[in-house]
Amino acid sequence: MEDTGVWLVGARGNVATTAMVGARAVARGETNTTGMVTARPPVSQLDLPGVDSLVFGGHDVQETRILETAREMAERGPPDQDTLDAVAEDLQEIDSRVRTGTARNCGRTVDALADDTLDADRSLTDVVDQIRDDLAAFRREQDVERVVVVNVASTEAPIPDAERYDDLEAFEAALQRDDADLPASSLYAYAALQERCPYVNFTPSTGASLGGLRELAEANDVPHAGQDAKTGETLVKSALAPMFAGRNLRVLSWEGHNILGNTDGEVLEDDANKQGKLDTKGDILDRLLPGDPHNRVRIDYTPSLGDWKTAWDYIHFGGFLETEMTMQFTWEGSDSALAAPLVLDLVRLVAHADAHGEGGLQPHLASFFKAPLGVDEHDLSRQFDSLEAYARRHLEADGVTARDEAEREVDR
Amino acid sequence: MEDTGVWLVGARGNVATTAMVGARAVARGETNTTGMVTARPPVSQLDLPGVDSLVFGGHDVQETRILETAREMAERGPPDQDTLDAVAEDLQEIDSRVRTGTARNCGRTVDALADDTLDADRSLTDVVDQIRDDLAAFRREQDVERVVVVNVASTEAPIPDAERYDDLEAFEAALQRDDADLPASSLYAYAALQERCPYVNFTPSTGASLGGLRELAEANDVPHAGQDAKTGETLVKSALAPMFAGRNLRVLSWEGHNILGNTDGEVLEDDANKQGKLDTKGDILDRLLPGDPHNRVRIDYTPSLGDWKTAWDYIHFGGFLETEMTMQFTWEGSDSALAAPLVLDLVRLVAHADAHGEGGLQPHLASFFKAPLGVDEHDLSRQFDSLEAYARRHLEADGVTARDEAEREVDR
Amino acid sequence: MEDTGVWLVGARGNVATTAMVGARAVARGETNTTGMVTARPPVSQLDLPGVDSLVFGGHDVQETRILETAREMAERGPPDQDTLDAVAEDLQEIDSRVRTGTARNCGRTVDALADDTLDADRSLTDVVDQIRDDLAAFRREQDVERVVVVNVASTEAPIPDAERYDDLEAFEAALQRDDADLPASSLYAYAALQERCPYVNFTPSTGASLGGLRELAEANDVPHAGQDAKTGETLVKSALAPMFAGRNLRVLSWEGHNILGNTDGEVLEDDANKQGKLDTKGDILDRLLPGDPHNRVRIDYTPSLGDWKTAWDYIHFGGFLETEMTMQFTWEGSDSALAAPLVLDLVRLVAHADAHGEGGLQPHLASFFKAPLGVDEHDLSRQFDSLEAYARRHLEADGVTARDEAEREVDR
Amino acid sequence: MEDTGVWLVGARGNVATTAMVGARAVARGETNTTGMVTARPPVSQLDLPGVDSLVFGGHDVQETRILETAREMAERGPPDQDTLDAVAEDLQEIDSRVRTGTARNCGRTVDALADDTLDADRSLTDVVDQIRDDLAAFRREQDVERVVVVNVASTEAPIPDAERYDDLEAFEAALQRDDADLPASSLYAYAALQERCPYVNFTPSTGASLGGLRELAEANDVPHAGQDAKTGETLVKSALAPMFAGRNLRVLSWEGHNILGNTDGEVLEDDANKQGKLDTKGDILDRLLPGDPHNRVRIDYTPSLGDWKTAWDYIHFGGFLETEMTMQFTWEGSDSALAAPLVLDLVRLVAHADAHGEGGLQPHLASFFKAPLGVDEHDLSRQFDSLEAYARRHLEADGVTARDEAEREVDR
Question: ipTM, 2 decimals?
């Protein structure tokens, strides 16, 4: 299989950096694929692009080099120093392919963090054209079969009345009149879909979730997936909430308190941007639990934690004979180590979809997202089953027998 | 539908008492059905015996009356005082139907706790005949359609070389020769199955898990289910472990520490009896997680906690780029409030199976047990799906449309 | 010793109700004195007013009767039903002595909760006169030696520029001109001190902390103590923070997240009132820990928890060789059960001070408060030592030998 | 001041290695003194030997080099790689001074871990003479003013009937007859005290706690301190338990569950050795809390955690009106990073005592130990106060004014 291009919007941030460090470390045999869903049978048996065949580029509005970001991260890890040394040159080469991006309508905090952006006086159509040119140049220069665009930039504020953009015509009219509400993430998504690049929105930002952009993806037969990757506390919620529901235990309150100290946390200190994150985090419990329990999610910025996101959840529930009981958990994870392998998984899976002519929404990717586009199922096990079923369908079509459990073990 | 008899082995213990208090409180409109799986659609739409139609009786080796057990429990709750007052007479009536049981081969600690048992010098066949007589008398006197036997007695020590009893002939030969290894739980199970009473083993004791007894259940076409109800920490494990596996995160260690203060805890202080419990608790992680992680479960007796079982689990796992992360949870639940509704659920579901001629193992009941007989699937969501599929099959066969989610809400 | 009057501002709230239920239950032999600091030697050996000699009355702006408050509380406990039954008549008698209070300048949320208050168009001097009349009438009618006034009303918003009222003249001038910033708690404190009633501010509200009122207390030789009783999370902080400091471990971040569901929590949902609470909670770590660690305290309203206040604290600290480590704790306590005995303790101790002519500030009571007036020491053990030293000084002066540890045991 | 020799028994273990890495890193300006109690005023103002003036040597029964131990530790840290590189040569030099030690009567597990020991057929007096020769040679060759001996070897099993050795004569008679119960730690202690080397027993092993050895220390006027350094869970207990006691809250149960994965954990898997540890850990609560609460401490070996010791404590306590409440905490610390700075502190403080002719027990060092020899006070704050008072006495005697809080800040 030919190489696959991966264009990261927010290429110099923590998640992008960790994804690239990891991909190159896997390619060089410096680390294994633990944490990658696509490394597990039966998904691993699909004809996916190899991790070593991924060629990276991207946009950013920060000037801190990828290698510098990686070095800062290595102080607390991941990555560790040895792994970083092994891929340092690769990172420098990738960095030379990073182009100046846009931060239109991302909120004040993102603006304040931006070092350099596409000129603020350019028209939106001009910005979109520039992005398209950058994508086309990357594809041409790297001679890759396809380019997957992944949004891993800082979270934007949510936009009001998103239904304004519910068809493509309305979206393009807004572009033409330089609509001040169209956020950067949707400009990137539009450019990607026009360039027939499969698109993944890893963040809670608007991206391709607008009706007009979904229409475009269908029209151009481009696969896209989103939104808001499910990496930590919400992942646990989607595994635990079905337990309470299935046992007919009545959740009275579910309190979630997240603390983290990376740039993501800093951006979320701005209440407007935080709202985007909270909207998708809270939602999932409302869907999984009956009776509308009290449900609060807090995200606070705690600088000393760096990339380590810690969540404390307190679940107060009622059982038989009105007995009140509690469960609480603390999750301490490296945000980047949890997110990065999923970026690679999603790239491989949307590339696979594109190669098989499966444009539009990708419901079998629901397990990756807090707010999976076009999917109402939030039960994690059922979401996993849907991905496995997708893999088995393809394997059967290809005459491959999914390996059994015994063989799976051997892979490890 | 006619009344259904429920014969509880260990009728004066906490779990049995709470189940009876709850059933009578539901029947009298004093409480709701929160915590009962059979109160949720689509299972609730099956033609199950009504909670108010259950008629209770049982065996015990303790002389403390059910009402007295209930009063002791009400000091810390559940039940609360008002509920107890409402059902006190019912409990006294039930208590008059409790017969002296046997504690053969249950281990020293259970022996020490027993006030009165069937004479120790009786032969095993004589003990079995007595149990059968008691069951037949109960059915006759209460004029019930069928009697479901449920083992909720204290945990026995596991028996060595259980495969000795792998066919019915061997089992019956052992009975004849007064085999000193045949535990009480299996004598009860044998009597129940001979009387064609559906049988549920709620505990980790041997019960009907022996090959010979499974053979008998098939031969007599009697449904039976077990073993070791999944009420607390292990329930959470079966919901969480698939999350780690599905995300290809490598669990390095999973430490579980349980503390509790009821009779169950006291019995488990005896290392032999504890072993029975630990065998099934640890097992589930080995099945759900690859790579054979370090996996320890401790159960300690902490008198001040009474019926409140508290578990602390610490999960150390590795992710991408060899990043080590942790999750920990604390579960604080009333053992009886969690177990009791499941007793009622299982009674209703095996009665349903019996009414529909579905003898033998009941794989769709796997979600109720730590060691579901005849089922290898330990993923809780998949186990729930299997129960739901069972319900839908029956509803379709009966021309009933399973109500959709919107209607489910109305039930609450 | 003659009876001692206890005048509770906020007499129908949870803390007041629990204090009265407890005092009467102790008096009637229905419960013990666990949780009361004054029940421990050597403090218990002082010549303190007996718990059974306390006569209660108070002000409130709510019409819900004390007995009704107690009944609502008893649903989740404390108190339990038996205890409540034993003191129900006492509570009704006390309720007949409750007078309509004032809620001037307590913030919108408190206003919204008030059923009835002293007329809003009365002048401040008129309000103060009414309070003084109520206090005098209580003392006269109950024929008590002295009346201790305790503020247990809902938390007010903090006042700006409190130094405006730094001397008595300025405070009284403000009274005269109906200063719209003078909060209810300070009106009560002024009235109490003028009536020569020992005064305790159990809440974070302003109370007698103003310079002008301290001056008045000195002038009238009336003991007073405050402010903001230390009952839960902050108590733990004051025990733990000295451990980190003493071991030269560097706290990097100390995150505190409190959830509770009582009226106090409801009032704190109003950001203005919450600020009063947060000011004193955060402060203590700044005093106990060097290096200005990141220090956040959140208080959220979680209705299902009722009076049970749960705190999760996460402490990120650095040690030798720049090693980063963590400690976290969860505290689950009944706010009222923790606060009520301290109300009784403080009443007894300020009555003791008054009886011994010890007017003004009471530095030996620092252990009871988050922001002890006139004391900089926040190390809990040292605060305890100061109370013990006070007791020993009095005992020595009285020729009493403080009992040794062996004898203490006997008391339990 | 001249250099001070530090002779570590167990010189190649984790704690010793971390102490040496840390001391050399401080000496070379590679790290700071966070975690060292002697770096805080007023103790830091004493005339203590400088960290850079410490010269290390020691005994061990393992052949793994110090540098190798340090490298293994650096994989998870501490130390980090940069720090290790900076001191690698120092470690190699120190290693050349390590002599073969003895593991007499340390239990089977320690035996199994030993690579090489002083010949098992040597008489005890011969072993003691060898140790004394090694100490004397070290002092002579390094030309140090004094040698402080610190036991940081793996925990031995406790010895039965320790009162057998309650006077020096009995101890020496046991030596002469090759008493098979005299453990290695006491042989080292005897040798040290005979050589007039100040001695610190950092572990729960017997060491100099025998009456006969205390007598020897007094006779020779040699300072000694022990036993069982208080680094983690017990440290927290000694800070928290006085809070419960001081508030007259009744602890019903205090459950402690420790998991760790280093050699210490491995040795503790042997029940005999574990007992030594548990004896001192549990004891402290019995002393600090009245009413004999249920009090269990578990220590389990969890290999994946390495040097990171995690403790979960669950405290069930009763308050006013018989209200039951809970507190739980999780402590996650690097055992070595917590222990190592205390080794350096103790070396400096017993050297100081020796320089000032303060032989025998050192009660002001109680805060460092779980079972401080000769001290009954377990309240951490009071123990800290005792150390501070010691420092202030010396400073006053020397005419030095202890710096106030404002100045302390400047040090940081």
Answer: 0.94
